[in-house]
Input
Amino acid sequence: MKTLRVGVIGCGNISVMHLDSIAAFEEAQLVAVCDIKPDRAEKTAKKYNTKAYTDYKQMLAEAQLDAVHICLPHYLHVPVACDAFEAGVHVLSEKPMSIRYEDAVRAVELAEKKGMHYGVIFQCRYNTPSQLVKQRITDGSLGAVKCGRTTLTWYRPDNYYDKSDWKGTWDKEGGGVIIDQAIHSLDLANWMIGSEPVEVQSSLHNRNHEIMVVEDSAEGLIKYKNGALLSFFAMNNFLVDEPIEIRLICEHGKAIFSYDKATIEYHDGRIETVDNQTPDVLKNSGGKDYWGFQHAAQVKQFYNAVRGIEPLDISGKEALKIQKIICDIYQNNDSPFQAK
Ligand SMILES: NC(=O)c1ccc[n+]([C@@H]2O[C@H](COP(=O)([O-])OP(=O)(O)OC[C@H]3O[C@@H](n4cnc5c(N)ncnc54)[C@H](O)[C@@H]3O)[C@@H](O)[C@H]2O)c1
Output
């Protein structure tokens, strides 16, 4: 079967998780990388023995790519994905799909029209505990989620935002703790619930950041068509990164996630505990603990889809579900704090 010719656009923090995944898989060959900062593009190209570009449009035109990984600031995800689709190139985009729901819909429609695969990274779904709990919900042993809560208490001080030329801004990041950090736990809980949200309530605040304008604190409630309720609390003022917690109260028991472990307590007294299994591929990539290590699993699944072996798990259409929730959280903010 054909080896895919792939490229990576954006050689910042997260790119190592993509680059090391590509390097580990024989299904794909890294033929180009691109960063608008020439030193980053060159350094990455040298490390991975490939060609450097500083203009992604030139890369799309020249490099005869089958697929690109998009590792860019949020506001660039949709425009770059659409340029790739127009060039006949499949896309695996970092989360979030977009900072605006309508733009994400437009990208999904274009991918469908051009017959391109559009994958969106939500690597936490590939954690061993996530897979197990989802299976126990769908096979009926745990049964449907009746209510849940997600809690994220992390620390992103002013200098975290100061170092970045796009984080902490409405126009480039599209928000703060919700769109960047809590998006993963909200996606996991929403995926587990598996029903359609009918109402999203939220209160957003910037309680403790001087130099950035987006929210650092958020809480709210999501109501689902099947009656399930999901409450959330997220903030970046905790001084340390405590493990994310998700609690799901189900028909036949409850599932409790803490960081990347989960415990299932059934009503009949049985207890199942599961730890995440870290794949060897990314153990030494220098990634952050709180990203987890499952990018490799999702990259491989995306390649399988592009090569026609299996359907794409987290397609653009699937990712629109959490994208809509995220955008509704900003849209429906009922605090005096202005989400622009
Ligand atoms: N899945 C996860 O757990 C996870 C974790 C961290 C980051 N991310 C996501 O990854 C994406 C990138 O985040 P990051 O922390 O790596 O950001 P970053 O700022 O470190 O990297 C972005 C890179 O894009 C480059 N860039 C900007 N404009 C460009 C353009 N027009 N053409 C080419 N390159 C350009 C920048 O120079 C920079 O090197 C974001 O969407 C972020 O939310 C995901």
